[in-house]
Specification:
There is one protein chain. The chain has 342 residues and is an alpha/beta fold. It folds into two domains: 17-141 and 320-334, Rossmann fold, CATH 3.40.50; 144-318, Aspartate/ornithine carbamoyltransferase (Rossmann fold). Helices cover 34% and strands 13% of the residues. The protein has a five-stranded parallel β-sheet. The protein has a four-stranded parallel β-sheet with strand order 2-1-3-4, with helices on both faces. Helix 2 packs across helix 11 (315-334) and helix 5 crosses helix 11. The protein is globular. Bound molecules: phosphoric acid mono(formamide)ester. The site of phosphoric acid mono(formamide)ester (CP) has 10 residues, from helix 2.
Length: 342
């Protein structure tokens, strides 16, 4: 297992092939912990992990908490509703309070893009040892979701050895509200990073043409792309054409809370054009799995029948794989440069 050099995990644009390999290998090993009698490892005993969710969550917060507990860490959960934010304390002062209590890793979700990045910068400028793990910031990034999706797909294509190579030359089609999706952005980095070719499908209002260039320019402050040979990104606005030849389909929630103007004519038309159903999956020309990060709008981006069809839907796998994936990320951040739990 290679060394791990990331102090913070903000997005996946800086991840190398070795980083993906390390996460997938470790996740495979941690997956077995849930089948042991104690369901726990002592790996992070004495470490303090704090979840700071300024935006709502079901899956991510709970699975980070469970992942930390499975590694025997102490866990603190911050709740906006019962915090001193209501007395006028600023988010930064709130965060500094948790750092003063000794948090080794702060897992943060915020509806504003760049809050985790700005916080990591503040921490580094002030020589603080705490790691920041982004659990979703605005439209920008949701790295743990991108990595659990990667593990789910790699496990589907290669159950005995889920590795980055499992994704090489696979055609993955992502359908829906790409514009507002931090999950789509994270998946674009990870899937192309492992050599998959991604097709994006959606209306122009939710999928601007610029997305075809998404990975071509490294983000501000980053000189080089750590991946030398990325897979391609193609936009195809016809669902029938986009699905043809796909190896897997990922559909995304319509994020109505992030739409500032009326970006859709109506939901029935959206479902008719972009909703994933058994009938439309026939356009793939073979049986393919369907992923969705959740939460789901049943009957809009995906039919209830697909959701309940365990021979097609990998959504339950995504949820359960979230725990070992997040165990890996916590383990790697807490043990930078000594990455071996055995
Ligand atoms: N996929 C995801 O981020 O779900 P939650 O908002 O429930 O955490």
């Amino acid at each position: 297992m290679s060394n791990w050099n990331h102090k913070h995990i903000i997005d996946l644009s800086k991840f190398s092939l070795d980083d993906y390999k390390t996460v997938l290998e470790l996740t495979t090993r941690f997956q077995d912990v849930s089948t042991t009698r104690s369901r726990k490892l002592p790996a992070l005993q004495g470490r303090l992990i704090t979840t700071l969710f300024f935006e709502s969550s079901t899956r991510t917060r709970s699975s980070f908490e469970l992942a930390a507990k499975r590694l025997s860490a102490d866990v603190q959960n911050f709740s906006v509703a019962t915090s001193s934010l209501s007395k006028g304390e600023t988010p930064l002062d709130t965060i500094l309070t948790y750092i003063a209590m000794g948090a080794d890793i702060l897992i943060i979700r915020h509806d504003s893009t760049n809050v985790p990045n700005d916080l990591a910068q503040y921490i580094d400028d002030n020589k603080i040892n705490t790691s920041i793990l982004n659990a979703g910031d605005g439209f920008h990034s949701h790295p743990s979701q991108g990595l659990l999706d990667l593990f789910t797909l790699a496990s589907f294509f290669n159950p005995n050895n889920p590795s980055p190579e499992s994704l090489l030359n696979k055609k993955i089609t992502i359908v829906g509200d790409i514009l507002h999706s931090r999950v789509a952005r994270s998946n674009l980095w990870s899937l192309t990073g492992c050599g998959a070719d991604v097709t994006l499908c959606g209306p122009k209002s939710l999928l601007p043409d610029e997305f075809s260039d998404f990975v071509l320019n490294p983000p501000p402050g980053q000189k080089n792309d750590p991946i030398t040979h990325r897979g391609s990104i193609t936009i195809n606005r016809s669902l029938k054409d986009a699905l043809r030849g796909s190896d897997a389909v990922m559909t995304l929630r319509l994020q109505k809370e992030r739409m500032h103007q009326n970006m859709l004519t109506d939901l029935d038309t959206y479902h008719k054009n972009y909703g994933i159903t058994h009938d439309r999956l026939k356009w793939c020309e073979k049986k393919v799995p369907v992923l969705h990060p959740g939460p789901v709008n049943r009957g809009i981006e995906i039919s209830s029948q697909i959701l309940e069809d365990d021979s097609i839907s990998l959504i339950k796998n995504q949820v359960s794989n979230g725990i070992p994936t997040r165990m890996s990320l916590l383990y790697l951040l807490a043990n930078r440069n000594i990455a071996d739990p055995s």
